[in-house]
Write a structure and sequence with these properties.
It is a single chain. With 194 residues, the protein is an alpha+beta fold. The chain is 35% helix and 26% strand. β5 and β6 form a beta hairpin. The longest helix has 47 residues.
Length: 194
């Protein structure tokens, strides 16, 4: 079975050794005849990694783009809702008005931006009077009564006042006060409410 030339017991079994040596000789011979792929293979692997990195980078950029886009849309929606909720003219305006004997007076015009109720806080007056919200088509223009209800008002009374200013197509509102011939009132009011 064993060749006497291979009497050393430390060497591997003969058929495997010969097969391995044959493969080594074949690779050495074929290396001279065929182009070697060994220098190309690492470059090919690097190219593949580059393609993979480019795909990963483009995927990363696409994800980043869409995340920024979603954030921008969310911020825009938030701003739009905040603008629509707080764009109305609900800041308090001080007024102090009085009649010179004809029994009515009104405040300067204020921009009416939506269909919400107006708000009135009477801090002082010369007795009970009627208050209603009237309409004006331009700043301090002609006063139009648009079917808004009249409310009895007195010093210390605070509340919302329903009105039809925007519903009737007007853009300005005024607080109309009527009562005794020399009616006077002061306080805070706003044409819109929150």
């Amino acid at each position: 079975m064993r060749d006497p030339a291979y009497s050393n017991t430390t060497e591997p079994f003969e058929p495997f050794t010969e097969s391995f040596q044959f493969l080594q000789r074949t690779n050495q011979r074929s290396a001279h005849r065929l182009p070697s792929f060994s220098p190309i293979l690492p470059n090919l692997i690097k190219w593949g990694e580059g393609v993979s990195m480019r795909l990963k980078r483009s995927e990363f950029l696409m994800r980043k783009f869409f995340s920024v886009l979603i954030c921008a849309l969310f911020a825009g929606a938030l701003m739009a809702s905040a603008t629509s909720a707080y764009a109305n003219n609900h800041q308090d305006k001080y007024y102090a008005v009085s009649s010179s004997g004809h029994g009515y007076t009104w405040t300067p015009s204020e921009k009416k931006t939506d269909t919400t109720s107006s708000w009135n806080n009477c801090t002082g007056c010369n007795g009970t009077h009627n208050a209603e919200i009237a309409a004006q088509s331009s700043y301090n223009g002609k006063v139009h009564f648009v079917g808004s209800p009249k409310y009895a008002w007195w010093t210390g009374k605070t509340g919302y006042m329903y009105n039809n200013v925007k519903e009737r197509g007007y853009n300005y509102a005024t607080l109309w006060i009527s009562g005794s011939p020399y009616v006077s009132a002061q306080g805070l009011w706003s044409p819109d409410s929150v």
